[in-house]
Amino acid sequence: MSEPGAGGGFSLFDAEERTLADAHHLLGRMQGGEAASLADVQILADAYSRSVREQRRLVKVSDRLQNQMALLNQELERRRAEAEEALERLRQAQETLVQTEKLASLGALVGGVAHEINTPVGIALSCASHLADATASIRTLFEADDIGIDDFQRYMDTAADTAKLIVANCERAADLIGSFKQVAVDRTSSERRSFRLFDTITETVTSLKPNLRQGGHRIDISCPPELELDGYPGAVSQILTNFVMNSLTHGYDPGQHGRLSITAQVDSDDMVRLVYADDGKGIAEEHRTRIFDPFFTTRRGSGGSGLGLHIVFNLVTGPLGGQVQLESAGQDGGTGFVLSFPRIAPEKGGD
Amino acid sequence: MENLTIAASERSPEVNFDVAAGVLQIKGESYPEDASSVFGPIFTALQDYLAQADGNGLKVDFELIYFNSSSAKALMNMFQMLENAKGTDIVVNWQFMADDETMKEFGEDFSEDLSHVTFNLVAVS
Predict the structure, then answer these.
(1) DSSP codes of every residue in A84-144
(2) In chain A, which end has fewer C-beta atoms inside a 10 angstrom radius, N or C?
(3) ipTM over 0.95 threshold
(4) Which chain A positions have a beta carbon within 8 Å of B11's beta carbon?
């Protein structure tokens, strides 16, 4: 037994087997000796033999358990990896949806632009057409040499009036295009620049005019005109658009005329406080904690994506580096949001 | 005799026996289906080395993270073999992660039956 490694490691219980064999030989040598001692040694040898069997059994059982545990751990790891992968796919899908929603709201903005520009262009067009008619008439009279002072007087009045209207409406259209261009560029580029908050608010509200006018809603803006921010006007515009569209979608029954307000000011510590409010139905108590969650909507059936306020939350806490809170409803009901963000946006805020 | 090199598998440890240097390294995890097939070649190589050591020493480095019960039995047999090789200076370095109390206790337990072999507990982090 004491000889180094005799028999090699091919049986784990090599040493025990050899001890058992030794015991067997010892018992053989003791045959015919003292019976009591022989019986005692026999008992010891039997006990050792059982003990070795027990050891073998324990090792086997314990190996099997450890094996099962290893397999379970592998399975656990595999499931965890699967779950993580699924979560990652979900995140990507959500990101895609958010981008889609942003583009969709840009589409709505373009629709609003088209509608808004249609009015001055339409007026200019009918004025021009009226002027053309009047010019043709006066030309006929002139060529027939049948023109009177009154006719000419009337024509000149018409020409002056229509020209004035054409110029005014074309200027209006040009202004609208200019401001929409800025809003559209800001929305799509998400580039950082210095901007006047008041201008961004009014341009955004102008782009929403068709929607507001349809329901007879009013919107009050209160913001220092010279207040200049350094950051992301596109994000501000997107946030305001989502607020307004939410109010119009959820806040009012048909025929109800809403009164919305946007109020902005700067605190002493260079933080912009922007408050948006409407006087609509408000948000139900049980929904208040969930409104910023992605995909939370009360209008799933009628086309709500549930991303509007989630995008607001992301824009305020991301690029703007601030916070947004739902105001507790005032006495006259309605919904209010309070945004607080630094006048100069933090670095690397853009997405 | 030749060096012994066995790559690690999912359930068995990496083995390197540099005969010229007299250094045997066993590292990794050990919970094979059949412990004797994993440890058999190591035992044979050790026997051969100890039989012809001729005054050369032996250093055995263990870096085990995990082993099952039959591997533990095989390790006990291996330590018994080392303890019985009286003619050779043998040093065992039992490495364990500093925060792995169990692996440290296994090392202490193995070292109890050893008097001829120098057994070092080496905490690593």
Answers:
(1) HHHHHHHHHHHHHHHHHHHHHHHHHHHHHHHHHHHHHHHHHHHHHHHHHHHHHHHHHHHHT
(2) C
(3) no
(4) 70
Nearest-CA distance A8 → chain B (Å): 6
Mean pLDDT over residues B5-34, rounded?
93
Buried b or exposed e, range B19-36, using 16+ CB within 10 angstroms: beebebbbbbbbbbeebb
Q: What is the pLDDT of residues A281-331, one digit of tens each?
A: 888 888 888 888 877 888 766 666 677 888 899 889 888 999 999 986 655
- Name the DSSP class of A289: T
In whole angstroms, give the CA distance from residue A231 to residue A37.
100
Across chain B, mean pLDDT equals 92
CA distance A10 to A267: 83
For B4-124, CATH number out of 1.10.4030, 3.30.750, 3.30.43, 1.20.950 equals 3.30.750
A251: DSSP letter: I
Residues of B in contact with A67 (CB under 8 A): 31, 33, 68
| Contact of A312 with A324, CB cutoff 8 Å | yes
Mode of pairing for the β-strands spanning B23-30 and B58-67: parallel
Is the CB of A66 inside 8 Å of chain B's CB atoms? yes
What is the fold, at CATH topology level, of the domain defined by A194-351?
A: Heat Shock Protein 90 (3.30.565)
Locate tokens 């899908």: which residue? A93
Q: Please return the burial class of A308, using the count of CB atoms within 10 Å of its CB with bins 0-12, 13-18 and 19+.
A: buried
Show the low-confidence residues of chain A (pLDDT under 70).
Answer: 1-9, 300-305, 328-332, 348-351
pLDDT tens by residue, B58-93: 999 999 999 999 999 999 999 999 999 988 999 999
Of B112, B106, B119, B117, nearest to B69 (Cα)? Answer: B106
Query: What are the extents of the domains in chain B?
Result: 4-124
Residue-by-residue DSSP string for A275-286: EEEE-SS---GG
Judge whether A52 is closer than 8 Å to chain B, CB to CB.
no
Provide the pairing of β-strand B58-67 with B90-97: parallel
A225 touches chain B (CB under 8 A): no
Question: What local confidence, expressed as pLDDT, does residue B58 receive?
Answer: 95
- Compute the nearest-CA separation of B49 from chain A (Å): 11
- Taking CB atoms and an 8 Å limit, are A9 and B84 in contact across chains? no
Alpha-carbon distance B78 to nearest alpha carbon in chain A (angstroms): 8
